Amino acid sequence: MFRFTIRRLILAVPTLIFISFVIFAVLDLAPADPTANLPLTIPPEVRQQIRESLGLGEPFHIRYLKWLQQFFINEPINLVERMTGYEFAGSEERLRLRSWATRSPIVDLIAERMPQTLIVVGMAYLVGILIAVPIGVISAYRQYSWFDQFGTLFSMIGFSVPTFFTGLLLIIIFSVQLQWLPSIYDTTHRITDWDSFVYQVKQMIMPVMVLGLFNASQISRFMRASMLDNLSQDYVRTARAKGMKEQVVLLVHVLRNSLIPVVTVLALGVPQIFGGAIITEQIFRVNGLGQLLIVGIQGADIPLVQTLTFIFAILIVLFNLIADILYGILDPRIRYD
Predict the structure, then answer these.
(1) Which of 28, 48, 239, 293 is at 20 to 30 A from 118, Cα to Cα?
(2) Rg of the Cα trace of the chain?
(3) What 3-state class would DSSP assign to 98?
(4) Cα angle at 155 between 153 and 156, to 5 degrees?
(5) C-alpha to C-alpha distance for 141 and 102, rounded to whole angstroms
(6) For the chain, what are the domain ranges?
């Protein structure tokens, strides 16, 4: 398993480099002008000077190599310096990834927004798993029962209805009509006492439930299908014939084997939920990575969009590796070495 992990990590390097080239090339070819929002009274030669100061006067391959250096070398070194307090040579001359709009380091902007996104996305994914796994297990064990029919209806509705519609519907019901929950997520809120903790829970309920129910609807269908496939296997009949309790057969043997294909959905769903969080953050005004990406797109902030998109690609490659490792943990028959 260790050698397999090392091989996959080594293979991930050229994969990520290729992905970075595609992302950089596609966004670089986009008709985006960082001076488009400036006043029309600015002379053309001044606009050209601004573009050259942002590095747009250099050839494509030079800008791409500088972006790679800043992302893979300069920013990790800056992170180590911040964590350890030790300064490496040339720290003042080291170029950083900077936003065209604010001229602030992009990594610092991401670090400011990351906690809000992780709180909402992480809690939503946990809620989705806690809802989906029991529904999938019970639906498979009681196939064609009223619970199974309800689970199928729940999955169809949750997967078919987009998150922006669900979010607006919850705002109308719980914020406008009932006035139970706040419609806007206050990212500046700090927990200092019990009342502030209750308010934090209230403002998290709607965005977490919107994302959680969307993911639960998909995961529960995979869980049900995998459970049905394993319930008809010979080892289940053998375990029952030996006199094992039904709970042990279901929750120990069948559930463990059924989780193997579901792990793929869970692992690869983590980067996808960030995409869903982009819409949800816009609806509830969560000042997270999704809001930052939308602002970058609207303002033609190409370096910001490139960096965030590439981070999402890294998450996909990383969680794909985690899924492969979990296969070997769940099923002892799977060996990579």
Answers:
(1) 28
(2) 24
(3) strand
(4) 65
(5) 56
(6) 108-330
Q: How far apart are CA 154 and CA 147, in angstroms?
A: 10
Which stretches of 161-301 are DSSP H helices?
Answer: 163-170, 194-231, 234-241, 246-248, 255-284, 289-298
Q: Which residues contact 83 (CB under 8 A, 6 or more apart)?
A: none
Residue 8 has pLDDT above 80, yes or no: no
Residue pair 303/98 in contact (Cβ under 8 Å)? The answer is yes
CA distance 98 to 303: 7
pLDDT tens digits along 223-261:
888 888 888 888 888 888 888 888 888 887 888 788 877
Element (H, E) at 12: helix 2-28
Backbone angles phi, psi at 153, to 5 degrees: -65, -40
Tell me the pTM: 0.77
CATH node for 108-330: 1.10.3720.10
